[in-house]
Design a protein that fits this description.
With 168 residues, the protein is an all-alpha fold. 82% of the residues lie in helices and 0% in strands. It contains 6 helices and no strands. The termini are far apart.
Length: 168
Amino acid sequence: MQPLSCVRVALSGPLLLDMARGEDAARWPGEVAREDAAARRTYAARCALADAQDAVHGPGRDRGPVPLPTAGQGAAMELVAAGDEVAARWRGDPAQGAALVLELAAGGELGVEEVLDAAVDAAVVCGLLVLAEARTTAMSDPGAAAELCLTAVPHFSLAVALGSADLD
């Protein structure tokens, strides 16, 4: 594998992902609109919960010099953590990962599609990080860069499996 090929793959991943999302929106506009609406509802619920927790516990009390995240930031961090956990469990056992998705969605704060999308994002980011490392390694050691490109494949395969999962 040529070092330039590794660089091209690393740089084209986010663009190709955006193009695929655009194609999905064009192909299934109703479904995409429904998923977006569900994501907005669950996001609003998480923000309201975070606001309630701030009201009960009082922002900034004995929390040290680091400022607390806003309600929106807290909700986004919760979703990212859920996606990360689902991806990790799915990698070991897809049945456990699916059970975790359904468990997280049962509370009503998170939607099934939203959790799966966060898990896909987590897997894709891991793959892109490996490709970025391959890009920096490519000039000094092309063989190691090629090996790194191959180690990115399981991350992208996991992203495809998570993205194509139908738990409804």
